User: Fold Autoinducer 2 import system permease protein LsrD from Nocardioides marinus.
Amino acid sequence: MSTRSTTPAAGAALTSGEARTYAAYSRPLWQRVLLTRESAIIAALVAVYAFSYVRVENFDGPLTLYYLFLDVAPILLIALPMTLIIVTGEIDLSVASVVGLSSVLVGILHVDAGLSLPMAALVAIAVGALAGGVNGFLVAYVGLPSLAVTIGTLALYRGIAVGLLGTEAKTDFPEKWTDLAKQRIVEGQPYPWILLVVAVLAIAFAVLLHFSTFGRGVFEIGLNDEAARFSGVDVARTKLVLFVLAGAISAFAGVYYTLRYGSARGDNATGMELQVIAAVLLGGVSIFGGRGALHGVLAGVLLIGVINSAMRFNTDLVDKIQIVVGVLLVLSVVSPSFLSRASGLLRARAGLRSRSTAATGKRSLP
Assistant:
């Protein structure tokens, strides 16, 4: 993918990831907070959850919420760095393959080589960061399109993972670690401890993206990488850092995935990259870069998770979950263009109406 070449309007200020003019601040605060794509996704999440709670049999049990959080935790983790990458106008399709590769490495290093599980996990995360660094170097310094690079490394990293284990699965993990991966924060409550990790990382990425000079540089790159370079942003280094973060956190998600299911396989998390990208775009991040907010992305991940969980209660719909994810991905890409054109037409009609009214008023003057 390549970044857009449009330049923000003169006098615009970069705040929450988009070029805002003085006219954008003429609306009341409640409209600027509530009338956004992020707020719409949060409202949709509440509505879908409430509907499922009332209409889907057995959906209201605490066990359902517990397994919902366990299922979406890896997607929540990977969506954090993916948000920043897409804001720059790039994309990383290799994240699920890094999950599978780190899963295989944990299995081989712990079960076969005898390393302690924490040490095996650290090695797997380091390899994930290296895999992300390869992506970042080819995109940022060689200048190759991220779409082409990460399609290639998607196949490469998955091929290495499958090649190392074949069809074999490593399952001999200590019970204390597999239990820890599924442990609740408070016994009897439907909140697994992995949510604490997600919360800490979400706060860190929110501060990085929305309240730091590094984050402002990320938005500037997405709006116009050439202008960002002239304004002092190290575009190449920023992209490299983001891809390394994506690789490291994807590898950590792979370690969690392995312990949660108690199995290291080369095909673990196959197809997860589509759910991550769909959630990020559904959460209000522009596929063209330059716009996005992390709270919308978190709501997008949970929305897809709630839909998946509700559909699993209907055996006739289980096989159609990927169809729903695909439809949401298409809608999340198409809807911003459709809405911007619709709002443009409405503004044009309002302008014509006001000019017509003004002209009529002038003609009626004595």
Remarks:
- The radius of gyration is 23 Å.
- The beta strands are 13-14, 19-20.
- Residues 2-19 have pLDDT under 50 and may be disordered.
